[in-house]
Amino acid sequence: MSLRSSELLLDARNVQLLRLLAGDPRMTISELARRVEMSAPATRERIRRLEEAELIKGYRLEVDPRALGFPIAAFVRVRPMPGKLAKIVELAQRMPQVTECHRVTGEDCFILKIHFESLEGLDTILDQFLAFGQTTTSLVQSTPVPPRGLPLPGERRR
To answer: N or C: less crowded end of the chain, CB within 10 Å?
Structure first.
């Protein structure tokens, strides 16, 4: 975290804005301003500074993959063959079914989250990665803890 980011997090109103936006990213500037007891222009400026400092990195729409015809998800670990690291990254970037790609430590260099229309589609996608390395696949059975944000200052959980 940059010095500027940590300074912005020392301000209680900035933290309050982050908390409100985390709860409802579509909240209007006027509603945010009312809740933090500031003018709309001052609130807009604070949000702009939070975005510039990359404390807010954009607003995302989350659509259920099942509604899009992708009822199966898997985490795939990939151990590239020598000299094929970049090929794995290129392939993952080209595949719209790959929703996450993380470079990790350990024997496997990558962990990918991939969505599939069917189990038959699993072979088709894995075969493309197998051209550049070894894969280990774990199908997702359920997600008891869905993706969530980290606690803001003053909200630390144990």
So the answer is: C
